[in-house]
Amino acid sequence: MIKSLIINPGSTSTKLGVFEDENLVSEETLRHTTEEIAQFDKIVDQIDFRKEMILEFLKNNGIDVSTFDVIVGRGGLLKPIPSGTYTVTDKLVEDLKNAVGGEHASNLGGILAKEIADGIGKPSFIVDPVVVDELEDVARISGVPELPRTSVFHALNQKAVAKRYAKEVGKNYEDLNLIVVHMGGGVSVGAHSGGRVIDVFNALSGDGAFSPERSGAVPPASLVKMCFSGKYTEAEVMKKLIGNGGYNAYLGTNNAQEVYRRSLEDEEANLIFKAFSYQVSKDIGAQAAVLKGKVDQIILTGGIAHGEQVTNDIKERVEFIAPVTIYPGEDELLALAQGALRVLSGEEEAKEY
What is the pLDDT of residues 206-224, one digit of tens each? Predict the structure, then answer.
């Protein structure tokens, strides 16, 4: 039996999971107030604060930190890397601390994992961070050489549900052609082939369908005019695209369930609700073309996949391509634990950053 501690830092919380093999023994979300976070100038300055909270939680719950075989952290904004489970090295920590890919709370995951693991002489890993990049060269071309398409997506959950589906049907993930759709605060639609995500709509900075908080792709010429109109700062335009886009922009909420409830009574809300499924379906069709129509399964996942009306709308548009499987939610703690298990059981080799 392998006992693991899983650490998934968010902007105002730190999710913890204690696993014995794939069995969740204990789960906790440590909340951090705005005032607590505000005392730190940079995200990396929160390391000691969060580490102390984690160790205090373990102590108060009678969990001896020395009994863990491995500590696993959520991967952060590193340089682009292939999918896999990575040993947390000094170089990896250095890049997380220097925010080479940008400031984000997930950058703390690998750092916290290594600090706690080093203290008990055990290994530390990260698994499938959002910067996983397995794109085909042709998928990087955008039309403007200075603006290549990039891979930033829900790699952890996409890979986990793809491998889950493969296991359930008794096939190797590497032998399947899958289209995986993650629908949460952001949306990513990926084409999986040969065990790689060869094309994906960037979930953060602007391709594909809009989401509850993000604009997705917008008309570029109109965006340029907005940027140079003098009405908005750079930060304000970025907020329109990431944070205040999508459902937030049209309906003033990022709550997909609320949007559905309003869609039953309000014509505008109904239009926006249907437009979401419409745009996601278009992205699925595009990835079907990437896979030359040879699609074994379409998988819908993420929090919005709990919504039966959304998934039914998408299925109605895309089931002609391939059957649809739905794995609602995102079990990131389990996905991180499974990544470490694959290495410690000898199923995979740990990669080095």
Answer: 799 999 999 999 999 999 9
By DSSP bridging, strand 324-328 and strand 297-302 are parallel
Alpha-carbon distance 278 to 313, whole Å?
A: 8
The Cα–Cα gap between 188 and 148 comes to: 17
Residue ranges of alpha helices (H) inside 169-307 are 220-227, 234-241, 247-251, 256-263, 267-290
**Radius of gyration (Cα) for the chain, nearest Å?**
20
Strands 13-20 and 124-127: unpaired
Cβ 261 vs Cβ 240: under 8 Å:
no
Q: How far apart are CA 205 and CA 207, in angstroms?
A: 7
**CA gap 187, 167 in Å, rounded:** 25
Cα angle, residue 277 at apex, residues 272 and 279 outer, rounded to 5°:
85
d(CA 353, CA 138): 25
Q: The tokens of 250 are what?
A: 């049209």
Contact 116, 55 (CB under 8 A): yes
Residue 113 has pLDDT above 90, yes or no: yes
- Give residue-wise pLDDT tens across range 45-72: 999 999 999 999 999 999 999 999 999 9
Element (H, E) at 336: helix 332-344
State the Cα–Cα distance between residues 191 and 329, nearest whole angstrom. 20
